[in-house]
Design goal:
alpha+beta, Monooxygenase, ten-stranded antiparallel sheet, six-stranded antiparallel sheet, F-box domain-containing protein, F-box-like_dom_sf, F-box_dom
């Protein structure tokens, strides 16, 4: 069988070789036959289009197969850097910023000063006040562009674009409130720029859900932001919470680009070691995260009911605008004042409030420091001494009201605290915005007032706060009999560049 097949193939090969040696006349005959057949097909219009459609893939298939066999790796990796830079030069700032996250090579090329200097020059030309052409050319000349470090022009352009007329609102923030030490027009600027805050919840699988604010409560030196949507995930499915500041357009259009998001804080939501029990009522239980974030959960399950975050006014507009989606805004180090100011008077402004009303607001000035060596080297400010009855301050009922999904309630003996410590030059020395909870005091102070004593403790890396309250049941309010703040002596030295 094999022998017969081999004989057949040899005969076939011989016949083909004889056909190739035929005279050209036979080839001409074949060409003529092909032309006549083609003319007949052209007359048949109904069959012409299908023939072309069927023949085109046959012609192009070998080309693609050849390209596939000859291709190795990514085409972009084989392109010279000069060609990629030419392609990137046609992108706008937003697209160029996003493409820098593709890989390391694109990151290096997309941060080229040559690209961002051109974009910066075009941005400057859009301003109402236009500098002279010679000035623009001098700014973006090749010599100066090469002298600047990598990312210099990118930083200038993003600051120019994300500043949102920062010259105007920075001028408005120069006017300080003599009572709080914070900018007087902070709330006005926040509302004029349409700045809002949104949270991003990330579950264990990396899926993100974004929620817009539903309610805000402004105080003299802080704002409390609340979220109370109808559909929340279960707490045990979440991995982290991110708080971003955004500037919403006054009249949003369907084709608007994604808004710039500035990261303010990122909080881990794992159950172990990241939260503490804060309080409860008949419907919800409240957990505290990172001092300033509280999350209410429905009793009986771990589904979220509401989220509240208290934000201090200190650098709030900068933190809400000038950061990026992944990196928060880092304020510049202010110039130091006279070191002797550390020995002079401080000012302490404290507000206890909730998302509905103010509970207490007090200002203490001047306060003088004293060293405490019992728990390390600390500097202490005593605003209210429990031994001095004339300094005791009455305080209204302390509670945290909430509202979610048409229901409402009130968690007793917890609230928001906004504390600001200013130096003699009225510069912010320590700013705190957090939730606080009252505990029954174990070691009772010897006081003239009779009643159950409660203590409020707050502590972070920058300092400590201790308050003592006495419950006056006959008057249905509390009495603040002690207020002490402490902070490390090293913090004073850093702030004043000298001895405390």
């Amino acid at each position: 069988m094999a022998t017969g097949l081999g004989e057949f193939l040899r005969i076939l090969r011989g016949g083909l070789e004889k056909g190739e040696q035929n005279s050209p006349a036979r080839g001409d005959t074949q060409v003529e036959e092909f032309v006549r057949a083609r003319r007949r097909r052209d007359h048949d219009t109904s069959m012409a289009t299908p023939c072309r459609l069927q023949r085109e893939p046959c012609k192009t298939r070998p080309v693609f197969e050849l390209c596939a066999k000859g291709s190795h790796g990514n085409y972009m990796e084989r392109l010279p850097s000069e060609i990629i830079l030419k392609i990137l030069s046609f992108l706008d700032a937003s697209s160029l910023f996003n493409i820098s996250f593709v890989n390391k090579r694109f990151h290096d090329l997309a941060n080229s000063n040559a690209l961002w200097s051109v974009l910066y020059a075009s941005e400057i030309e859009k301003k109402v006040w236009r500098p002279q052409v010679s000035m623009i050319k001098e700014v973006v000349s090749s010599t100066i562009v090469e002298e600047k470090p990598a990312g210099y022009w990118k930083k200038l352009l993003l600051k120019e674009m994300a500043g949102y007329k920062d010259t105007l609102w920075k001028t408005e923030l120069k006017h300080k409130n003599p009572h709080t030490g914070m900018p007087t027009l902070t709330e006005h600027v926040l509302r004029r720029l349409h700045i809002q805050w949104e949270i991003t919840l990330t579950n264990r699988h990396g899926r993100e859900s974004v929620y817009k604010q539903t309610h805000t409560f402004f105080e003299d030196s802080s704002v409390t932001v609340c979220w109370s949507q109808s559909f929340w995930p279960f707490m045990f499915t979440l991995n982290s919470l991110q708080l971003h500041g955004i500037m919403c357009p006054a009249s949003p259009a369907p084709g608007d680009k994604p808004r710039w998001r500035s990261l303010i804080r990122k909080t881990a939501l794992q159950r172990t070691g990241h939260w503490s029990f804060f309080g409860a009522d008949r419907l919800v239980k409240v957990l505290q995260f990172d001092k300033g974030v509280i999350i209410g959960l429905w009793r009986g399950n771990w589904r979220i009911a509401f989220i509240m975050i208290n934000l201090h006014f200190h650098k709030l507009i900068e933190r809400s605008l000038l950061g990026s989606r992944f990196c928060p805004y880092i304020p510049a180090d202010d110039s130091a004042v006279d070191p002797d100011c550390s020995r002079h008077g401080y000012t302490l402004h404290i507000v206890l409030h909730n998302p509905v009303r103010r509970i207490m607001c007090q200002r203490f000035s001047p306060l003088y420091t004293r060293r405490v060596m019992s728990q390390g080297e600390f500097v202490q400010l005593i605003a209210i001494d429990f031994a001095n009855v004339s300094e005791h301050v009455p305080v209204a009922k302390i509670s945290l009201p909430w509202q979610a999904e048409g229901l409402q309630g009130e968690v007793e003996r917890c609230c928001m605290m906004t504390l600001t410590v200013l130096d003699e030059a009225q510069r912010p020395f320590w700013c705190v915005s957090s939730t606080v909870k009252m505990y029954r005091r174990q070691r009772v102070l010897d006081l003239e007032h009779v009643g159950e004593q409660f203590i409020v403790l707050y502590e972070d890396a920058e300092g400590k706060v201790k308050m003592t309250f006495v419950l006056m049941e006959e008057f249905q309010h509390y009495l603040l009999v002690q207020l002490v703040t402490m902070f490390p002596a090293a913090k004073v030295k850093r702030h004043f560049r000298g001895e405390c």
